[in-house]
TrEMBL record, chain A:
It comes from the Bacteria. This is 5-oxoprolinase subunit PxpB. Coiled coil: none annotated. It is an enzyme of class 3 (hydrolase). SMART domains: AHS1. Signal peptide: none annotated. It comes from Bradyrhizobium agreste.
UniProtKB/TrEMBL annotation, chain B:
Residues 25-301 form the Carboxyltransferase domain. PANTHER family: 5-OXOPROLINASE SUBUNIT C (PTHR43309:SF5). SMART domains: AHS2 (SM00797). It comes from the Bacteria. This is Biotin-dependent carboxyltransferase. It comes from Bradyrhizobium agreste. Keywords: ATP-binding, Hydrolase, Nucleotide-binding. InterPro entries: CT_A_B (IPR003778), Cyclophilin-like_dom_sf (IPR029000), PxpC (IPR052708).
Length: 243, 345
């Protein structure tokens, strides 16, 4: 039998949720364990779990204290959370079109200048990346991606913008992101995608899932307009390929 | 079908219910009523499911007019003066508005949110099982935004059922109870003590996303940035300026500030109903106590139907008092709680 993995910390988040923490930092191994536990709990029949929320380094497990107490739930979660990781299964992969620079990516030039290279190099490095959806949070569909080229790691803006457009493709710290709705952001805006990761009357309402793989490709601004209209009408406009 | 028309309404008023569950993993927050017990009480009075969609009315006044038939409603939550055509309506009672009659509600006299439930409940298109307004995500039905004068609801015609009042359990008083964590280890003992032993006030800039707390600055051990992780209703996060924010129903589903403590389920509604500027304290409790209180809270909601009483005794008393022109009547009418107690059979 394979050795078990070190146990996560079980941190109470009030009386009806527990944070199962695998790491305090952004760590791909921890994120894999988060996603594996998320899947395993979904497949388990632990009575009382109502909802799970995967993040970079922890899984937030909401539960009903009327059905199960904190200690009893912890005793059920720990053996599952310390199981060796299952072999990596095929993940969905999304190819996401991006109109880089200009009005759609107002920070592209500055990012290039700060990093001592050209905008084209930034686009090549960003669209050349192989990303994983580590978590979705903050606002509907906001997909946080791991796998950003180390060259592109840079601290966030000193002063966050109060409003950034829907579909913004941005980078912040060691992360890349796909933002669905207009929202405040302190990240650097490289471009925009016509893809809606969240769209109310579309099936599916949410396009991306934690664990999905993502790659980007550049489109010109005219193509953006065309795809944006199609997306508004409910088309997915992202290409799905098997990884 | 009757209609209920919003004749006037203040800001921070919207359709809310038990909330939208199951999509926090996609960044979609739960929303839902700030004070679940009061929502459930109002719904129970008119025979609805406890967490059916109702109107959450912010601290300012509001008025509602029945059209195309009678409409039966009930109010619970933050106390306010209420009347129909000059006849006072008590908090925690149902009342039937005849076609053309208007229910007028004054400012909240303490607390913030009052719930107006409508017999048969508000109808609309549910998303993730809920009609609750989440303006940022464009969700909520029939109006995906705060309510405005002129909005109207298609509602069931009043059943003609006898009016009821509800004898609510005595509300807890004293400090708002919290469980420390999940990131209390990001603070030293002195700062945890400062958080637990200080007097706090809710800032006027608070809203359904979060209640900003005014008091001493709480210092972090290792700085204010942590890697984002999940939030819950009642998470108390401490951003860089040291001023804690209690996250409420429209919170972001994840956050990157250390969370020193979490308000217990049974006290979230009490915190929600704490008026801006009112001083209060926190008190740390054990997990066993918090979960025991959560179970009691769930039981209190389940048992609401057992707390219904005929309201005609109340009505008779008011009439008697009014007819006798008792000096105390005016005072009693302002404080719904006072004369409800005297009306207890």
């Amino acid at each position: 039998m394979a050795a078990t993995l070190p146990p996560p910390r079980l941190l109470p988040s009030g009386d009806s949720a527990v944070t199962v923490e695998f790491s305090r930092t952004i760590d791909d191994d921890a994120n894999q364990r988060v996603l594996a536990l998320d899947k395993a709990l979904a497949a388990s029949s632990i009575d009382g779990i109502t909802e799970t929320v995967p993040t970079y380094r922890s899984l937030l497990v909401h539960y009903d204290p009327d059905k199960i107490g904190f200690d009893a739930l912890g005793e059920k979660i720990l053996p599952i959370a310390t199981r060796p990781l299952p072999p990596v299964t095929k993940a969905r992969r999304w190819r996401i079109p991006v109109a880089y620079g200009g009005e759609h990516g107002i920070d592209l030039e500055d990012v290039a200048k700060t990093l001592g290279t050209t905008p084209d190099d930034i686009v090549a490095r960003h669209s050349g990346g192989d990303y994983k959806v580590a978590m979705i949070g903050f606002t509907p569909g906001w997909s946080y991606l791991s796998g950003l080229d180390k060259f592109l790691h840079m601290s966030r803006r000193q002063s966050p913008r109060v409003l950034t457009p829907a579909g913004t493709i941005s980078i912040g710290g060691v992360q890349a992101g796909i933002q669905c709705l207009a929202a405040p952001s302190g990240w650097h805006l490289l471009g925009r995608t016509p893809v809606r990761t969240y769209q109310l009357h579309r099936n599916p309402t949410f396009l991306t899932e934690p664990g999905d793989r993502v790659t980007f490709y550049a489109i010109d601004h005219k193509t953006f307009e065309d795809m944006d209209r199609a997306a508004e009408a409910g088309e997915i406009v992202a290409e799905q390929v098997d990884a | 079908m009757s209609r209920l028309v919003v004749a006037s309404i203040g800001p921070a008023s919207s359709v809310q219910d038990g909330g939208r569950h199951g999509a926090q993993r996609y960044g979609l927050t739960v929303s839902g009523a700030m004070d679940r017990l009061s929502l459930a009480a109002a719904n129970t009075l008119v025979g609805n499911e406890p967490f059916a969609a109702a109107i959450e009315i912010g601290p300012f006044g509001a008025s509602f007019t029945a059209r195309d038939g009678a409409v039966r409603v009930a109010i619970s939550g933050a106390p306010r003066n209420a009347d129909v055509a000059g006849s006072p309506v008590a908090m925690d009672t149902s009342v039937t508005l005849k076609d053309g009659e208007t229910l007028t509600l004054g400012f909240a006299r303490g607390g913030a949110f009052t719930y107006l439930a409508i017999e048969g409940a508000i109808k609309g298109e549910k998303v993730f099982g809920s009609l609750a307004v989440n303006a940022r995500a464009g969700l909520g039905s029939p109006y995906p935004r705060p309510l405005q004068a002129g909005d109207e609801f298609d509602v069931d015609a009043a059943s003609g059922a006898p009016e009821l009042r509800i004898q609510l359990p005595k509300p807890a008083t004293g400090p708002i109870r919290v469980l420390l964590g999940p990131q209390d280890d990001e603070f030293d003992e002195a700062n945890k003590a400062l958080f637990l032993n200080s007097e706090w006030k809710i800032s006027a800039t608070s809203d359904r996303m979060g209640y900003r707390l005014e008091g001493p600055a709480i210092k972090h051990l290792h700085g204010h940035n942590i890697v984002s992780d999940g939030t819950v209703n009642g998470s108390i996060q401490v951003p860089g300026n040291g001023a804690p924010i209690a996250l409420m129903m429209d919170r972001g589903t994840s956050g990157g500030y250390p969370k020193i403590a979490t308000v217990i389920t049974a006290d979230i509604g009490r915190l929600a109903q704490t008026s801006a500027g009112t001083a209060f304290r926190f008190k740390a409790v054990s997990m066993a106590e918090a979960q025991d209180e959560a179970r009691k809270f769930a039981q209190a909601i389940r048992s609401l139907p057992d707390r219904l009483r005929a309201s005609d005794i109340v009505a008779l008393n008011i009439e008697a008092l009014s007819d006798a022109n008792v000096a105390g009547y005016a005072v009693s009418a302002v404080d719904a709680g006072t004369w409800q107690v005297t009306a207890e059979p």
